[in-house]
Amino acid sequence: MNAELNFVSFRLVAQAMPVDPGHHHVLQPAAPQAGNIEWLYWVVFWILFAVFALMLAGFATATAKARVISSRPLPIIEDEEGDHRARWALGSALSITVITLFVILVLSVVTGKRVEGLSSKNPVTIQITGHQWWWEVTYPNSQADQTITTANEIHVPLNTPVVVLTNSADVIHSFWAPSITGKRDLVPGYSSAFWFQVAKAGIYHGQCAEFCGLQHAHMGLSVIAETADKFQEWQQRQIKLAAEPSTSEAIRGRGVFLTHACLMCHTIRGTDAGSHLGPDLTHVASRKMIAAETLPNTAGALAGWIVDPQRIKPGTLMSPNPLAPDDLQALVVYLQSLQ
Amino acid sequence: MGSLNEPIRRPLTLDVSGLPSVAFGHRNTTWLANVFYMAIEAMMFALIFAAYFYLRTRSTNWPPGHLPPSLTYGAVNAVVFLLSIVPAWWVRKRAPDGDRRAVRNGLLALSLFAMAATGIRVLEFTTLNCRWSDDAYSSTVWVLIGMHSGHLVTELIETLVLLVISFTPKMEGTRLADAAINSDYWYFVVVTGLMIDFLIYGTTRFL
Amino acid sequence: MAVAEPIIANDQDTGESELARRLARTWRQPTGIWGWFCNTHHTDIGLRFMVTAFIFLLLGGILAAMIRLQLIRPESSLMGPDLYNQVFTMHGSTMIFLFAVPMMFQGFGVYIVPLMCGARNIAFPRLNAFSYYLYVGGALVLWGGFLTNTGPDVGWFAYVPLSGPAYSPGHRADIWSQMITFTEVSALGVAICLATTILRHRAPGMTLNRMPILLWEKLVISMAVIFAMPAVMVASGLLLLDRLVGTHFFNPAEGGDVLLYQHLFWFFGHPEVYIIFLPGAAIVSTLVECFSRRRIFGYTPIVVAVVATGFIGFSVWVHHMFAVGLPQLSESFFTAASLMIVIPTGTQFFCWVVTIWNGRLQLRLPMLWCFGFIFVFLIGGLSGVMLASVPVDLQVHDTYFVVAHFHYVLIGGALFPMFAGIYFWFPKMTGRMADPTLGTWHFWLFFIGFNLTFFTLHFLGLRGMPRRVYTYSPDMHWHWLNVLASSGVVFMTAGLLVFLANVIWSRRVGEIAGNNPWGDAGLEWAMSSPPPPYNFLHIPTVSGRDPLWEDPPDQPVVVGLRDDIRETLVTQSLDADPQHKDEDPGPSIWPFLTALTVSAAFVGSIFTPWAVPIGAPPVIVTLIGWLWPRGQSPTPRPGGEAWVR
Amino acid sequence: MCKPLHIAPLLMAATLLASCKREERTLRQPPPASETLNTIQISGLNPGANSIPTPPSSNMYQESAYAVSEGQKLYEGYNCVGCHAHGGGGIGPALMDRDWIYGSEPGNIFATIMQGRPNGMPSFRNRIPEYQAWEIAAYVRSMAGLLPKGVSPNRTDHMNVKPAESSTSEQTPIGITGLPEQHK
Questions:
Q1: Own/partner pairs for C423-427, CB < 8 Å, 24+ apart?
Q2: D102: domain range?
Q3: Most CB atoms within 10 A, among A247, C138, C257, C417?
């Protein structure tokens, strides 16, 4: 019965529509944090490259100078004098080493301060909770109905400090968006905080960096940096309850959602579905990707994911849903209406 | 500087035929191995002590939701440990003199003390006021006492084996040295035992 | 049996061959299958360690090839996540616990150290044999698990809570945890044997000040093992308790703490790196001296550096945990400590340059591998400096950049020196020279393949590819770099095949080596190749750091050790003055039987806690069998000369 | 003489298979075996008389540590805890004791989850996929000590509210044991 839908395999989807997952490069920073680290990286790199070149030159010169070709053991050299002469060389080499290391230490500590020290007021606060294998993203607000909950996509306003509070629901995960800042582990039993501030509008890809089980490879996220206006607009939309379905197919789709396995795990605010085992789907259609940045959020991919998620992310807690084709169609239409 | 390929004549010798073949104390190689062994064990205890204090910082109350372990048996065992130092010291003192009778009596007394300590330890488990699967605190207490009990039993068996040997003619030089090393190890068991007592009976009350 | 007259040196011309015959009979190891399990001679056990570890290098290499094959294209369906996670965990665990330490520390140490000390056997040879069997037991447990789909799938570090009872069902993590117990007990046993041998069985005259650098490093490593390995045993032991009897050490909901595990693990994990690297550095120091044909420059600075490395190695573990978000002050401290490691390592590099500079370099095969080490390890060490810096580490931690870094450090620090050492001591072990042409092919194939694979991984890391992912999306553009990295595997495999061919061929028909083919200074070259079961006809005495180079022709030898029992000489720790005689316990089946009972208890406790009380009595019985006195030596009496208090 | 040699590989193969089952991670479930359940009459009054659904492959879930662990996650996630607590019972009956009102066989528990029972247990048909219901059934049985210890989880990372599944002693279920007479 689900055979006709199996063609929606991941690979087909991926080939049909290549998606740009966003910037994801340590050396292409888009935020002052990653920028400072990139600067430090290159400074340290060139210092060490010089060290490397000097050491190799030393060995090469020594080899060229001392090499004797012989396949029998040569007699031993008595060279007290040579030892004596070389002492200053060892001493000065070590002094240079110590000075170099000290410079690197100072640069590192200073950069660390610049990366971590929070200077600005009125930050946007985001709570990120790691799950096997997706990210729960909450924008807490003192009024419960103003709190936004979404998954895997983090919208942030440009040039505004963003404080990220981290937590984990199961095992250790690690939040990492290389173009923005270094990583931070999400450790169960610990809540910690770090901050960043994006300077360039765009979509930045991130990925879980701590091994967290079967689908560690498919635990992506994206940071979407946009102007303050756009961010406000997005926020206002997200606060709303789910849109009422307008077409008959969408209404049917909501029925499918509420009478099948979907409601056991997912929340759609404004309906009876209120479980927090899986991502909140109240505004699922506003996201670019699904399944923790594994598939593009298109009708085909969504249908393929609902029918057989284990094909795409083997081991995920989401069960296969062998729905009748028109039920599936209606469900997808409904989900796509949840802007 | 001799050439490498010439046959080397060796007219000079260092004659060691007169050297002794039994050594006591720090000269004995087994003594050295025992020191290394104790270092390994001490490291393990130290790490679990560290874990104990580390976990302490993760709870507001200590012990969390339990009564501290009852003092009775712990206190009795501490006294037994302290008294047992006497026969251990006696064995260690008399062994280098080759006094087999004194060593045998010392080993007998030491094994009685070790048996008493083991017996009391069994009772001690019943008065810890927690079960290992209750929480992290209880787990640590059980592992500390459990690990130490393992050492206690090992030491008891070792002493008993030495005691049996001491009744045979095999109780000669090297075995006497072993008996002395066994005393060193007993000291180690006593010291770690007292430290653990302090940790689980003391810090739960005073910290 | 009558007590034989000690051979007195004056009539040594007639006595030498007779003495050799008697010693050979006294020190003979039993043969046959039963005898194989009774053997306690260090050269045999050392070779077994090396051969077994090499087999696991090959097996771990096959797993590595599987990983590279899987990653050669995006969304590859070659392996699913379940198998892939087992494969990379097995690769790491095999290489660290079943190859690197058993080869570099146990294998080379057990084989070379007693020979370099001038001893007839290792101290506590039965403990040494027992350690070998336990190591094999651990290896069988791990690979047996893997072959029955019970291979650990939680990473070689097995972080909780992923490896805990809630997220790792079945016995996979238990297998990992008990493999740790097996291999660490084995390493600890060998550490005790080696440290005691070095401190008590050195030839008279080999004061601490004259000890070869290799012995210094083995001593420091033994100490590092003694103080570091307990940490991982505690970590894996507590993990096992959490999984087996439901304790709460790592359960945050009940006052446990998941970072406690990381602290314990890395308190072992970082010294472990030096336990693997220092033997490599020791081999390089030995070879640089030999092939520069002069005393090594900077003996004292090198020794100080080695000891310092041993100490500093214990104060840097937190740099594996920068990403958990520690206070800035402690981050700066651990950055500084991690950078400090460069100073002793740099010292060794500078001393090697000077030694070569002022010497007459013979670039023979083992030395070629040393240059390979210098190039590769230098890159790894310098990228390590980058990782010591917290901000940079936060970016590249847990990416392929780190994978590249530690393969440069570990393959550079262990595998290259290992091949150097094998080619160097091959004549001593087999009596024949390894073929230098094949060895050179081996070098270049391996060197090119290695750099192709692992240098590329740096770029993947900077492009944001995390470690331990079983696949990646084609949209991430990591594809071609992965193809490039995987292509290096072909060269490395070819290199290893050439090596195996070389060993098989040279062992049979290689050039006969003689006692000291390289003209080296160490005492291990003073006897025939391969060494006789008694090692030294006369235990030598030593008057300098490079005995075979410096000792005058009339350097005294030790006489007066009995040749009818396995008598050994014990010397003082510092000055190596003869102190007393000891008796080597000789071959015995009991270490093997004890290893069997201990293994049964360890394996049983994967499944039930009752294995401990049930498994203990057989262990006790075999231990008593092992230690029960059996000697026929006459009883020394107090007051007699054979007695020292 | 030869016979023991022949048996050895067999034994090895047997242990191998046994461990395979325990360690198997069946990530892609087979399609639902049958639609039988939909045709079963919902009659809460006499459930023992119904034919008991059998799992797709015999004991596939009972012998897999992974399936039991998944069942545990679902038990928490689907809020079974809300009524049954962590096995100790509350609004709903206790699950870790010997009393089985509707039978202790996996099929009974499966039917209970799918059909619901009078006095409060709702039906989860169409809500919980069949394989997940089997996994939950396996976990429920592990709480009562009816599964081998090797597959039962020892503790969760939650508050410690009950003894470990694998430390629960073997129990003889009382009440309806589940197997219809003719099967016994």
A1: C423/C365, C423/C366, C423/C369, C424/C283, C424/C286, C424/C287, C424/C290, C424/C366, C424/C518, C425/C111, C425/C112, C425/C524, C426/C503, C426/C506, C427/C513, C427/C514, C427/C517, C427/C518, C427/C529
A2: 46-183
A3: C417
CATH homologous superfamily, domain C11-579: Cytochrome c oxidase-like, subunit I domain (1.20.210.10)
Query: Within an 8 Å CB–CB cutoff, is residue D25 touching chain C?
Result: yes
Q: Does A169 touch chain C (CB under 8 A)?
A: no
The residue segments making up the domain with residue A145 are: 124-239
The residue out of A239, A259, A293 marking a domain boundary is A239
Total domain count, chain A? 3
Q: Which class is B45-206 in CATH?
A: mainly alpha
Which of D23, D163, D164 shows the shortest C-beta gap to C170? D23
Q: Tell me which chain C residue has its CA closest to the CA of residue B21.
A: C581
What is the rounded CA–CA span in Å between residue C153 and residue C92? 11
Q: What is the mean pLDDT of residues A67-79?
A: 85
Q: Which chains touch A (3 or more CB pairs under 8 A)?
A: B, C, D
Chain B residues closer than 8 Å to D160 by CB: 133-135
Radius of gyration (C-alpha) of chain A in whole angstroms:
28
Read off the pLDDT of each residue in A55-64 and give the average, rounded to a whole number: 95
- Residue pairs spanning A and C at CB distance below 8 A: 282
The chain-wide mean pLDDT, for chain B, equals: 89
pLDDT tens sequence across C500-555: 999 999 999 999 998 999 999 999 999 998 999 999 999 999 999 999 998 887 88
Q: Is residue A300 part of a domain?
A: yes
Domain spans of chain C, in order of start: 11-579, 589-631
- Find the angle CA(C447)-CA(C353)-CA(C281) to the nearest 5 degrees: 60
The least confident of A204-213, C4-13, C121-130, C565-574 is C4-13
Distance CA C401, CA C393 (A): 10
Banded pLDDT at D79 (limits 50, 70, 90): confident
Mutation choice for A interface testing from D34, D35, D74, D131 by most A CBs within 10 A: D74
Does A212 lie in the same domain as A197? yes
Q: Per the CB < 8 Å rule, is D129 touching A261? A: yes
Which chain D residues are closer than 8 Å to A170 by Cβ? 157
pTM above 0.80, yes or no: yes
Q: Say yes or no: A220 and A252 in one domain.
A: no
Residue A57 CB neighbours (<10 A): 11
How near does any CA of chain C get to the CA of A104, in Å? 8
Q: What is the pLDDT of residues C286-332, one digit of tens each?
A: 999 999 999 999 999 999 999 999 999 999 999 999 999 887 778 88
CATH number at residue D124: 1.10.760.10
Write out residues 306-325 of C within 8 Å (CB-CB) of A: 323-325
User: B133 and chain D: CB distance < 8 Å anywhere?
Assistant: yes
Q: Is there a contact between B1 and A76 if contact means CB atoms under 8 Å apart? A: yes
Contact A182 C468 (CB under 8 A): no
How many cross-chain Cβ pairs, B to D, lie less than 8 Å apart?
A: 7
DSSP A280: B
CA distances to A5, A278, C73, C218 from A337, rounded to whole Å, are 21, 19, 36, 69
- A214 contact C CB<8A: yes
Say whether both A235 and A247 belong to one domain: no
Please answer yes or no on whether B29 and C582 come within 8 Å at the CB atom: yes
